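Before the break, one more example. Copy the sequence into your notebook; we will annotate it together after we see the structure.
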Amino acid sequence: MRSGIALAIVCLVFGGCTTEDAEAPGRVGTVQLPLTATGSTGTAYRLDPARFRVQGPGVNRVYDGSELDVLDVDLEPGNYLVTLLSDWTLNADAGDGFAPVDAVLQSPNPQTVAIVAGSTVDVVFQFGVGEDKIAFGEGRARIRIDVDDCTPTAETCDGTDEDCDGAVDEIAACTPEICDNGLDDDADGFADCDDAECAELPACTVPAVGTTGSEGVAEGADWEVCRADDASAWVSAGDGGGTYDADAACQALGYDGADAFGGNCNTVCGYCGTPGQETYDGAGAGFPDMLRTTVNWRCVRGFVPPIVGFSSDEGVAEGANWEVCRADADSVWISAQSGGGTYDAATICASLGYGSVGEFGGNCNMVCGYCGTPGQETYDGAGAGWPDAFRSTVTWSCTNP
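Here is what the structure looks like once it is written out:
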């Protein structure tokens, strides 16, 4: 809705110039003043009355462009003072003729025009909002007017500049909601899955318990949803088990992927004869894309702390699996299982979604405890090869920044 129109003086500087009143027409520069123009909104404008006083080398007179489309003046090179006289009126085409409009001249008046061979000078008479502009070019001076015919209103999301600030659809309400960044992008009071724009996306829905599917099943029984919330879901192989791409199954349910797994002794939605027991013991080969056979796994969105009791051979060079003893968003306590082994602690931390290794020590072969005291989380600095070949009956922590 912002528009600019230009009224220009053009002075072409030849080998020599005379004054406007000179008698040698071949040695003058021509000043051309267009007094009509069309704004970007399509509105035609005319400056009428339009009288300019030009003062400079041998010249001090008023040039009247009223009722003209173009005013031509001859000037010789030099410095000139150009003044728009106060009886000017800006007129807009109302459809049935031109009519005066309210306008404010905001630029300096008068202004200096330096006519120098090999240069271009723009002198701007600004009506509304604008600023002076100076440029250099091919030996001509231009005077123009800029008109801002924008009436500020509240900005909406329609591809126009209603508030007249030069930007289009810049308000937060015009920004699409990003459904997984934790921010209220469109400033409607709701972020991510709480926003109506995101609510129907798979990543924002919670699958119903009992939902079954074949996505990610290479062979065998379908999988089944045993428990689900916004952050995670417990998924079990159906009766008889099979071979599963756990990540693909999770993504079909709107989660990012799988982070924990184990066997279930063919107890669908349970653990080895106990219905409803959600346990991830790390049993089952081929996690995550070829997990088999009678197994279950956990799907997560974003970072979710691992489940206490989860164990795995990820990062184990030799010996027993490791086990999660305690976990929250900031840190996790991990213990070697009975007998110990050799562990790449950094790899194990990364597999659980933590950014770095923390403290470490021995545990006297006390799984999830310390030297005879179950549940005691202690890091005494014992154990060799920290962190990538850490051994033997040991414990350590992983942390997030």
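Residues 1-31, 129-145 have pLDDT under 50 and may be disordered. The domain at 10-147 is CATH 2.60.40 (Immunoglobulin-like). Try to locate both features in your own notes.
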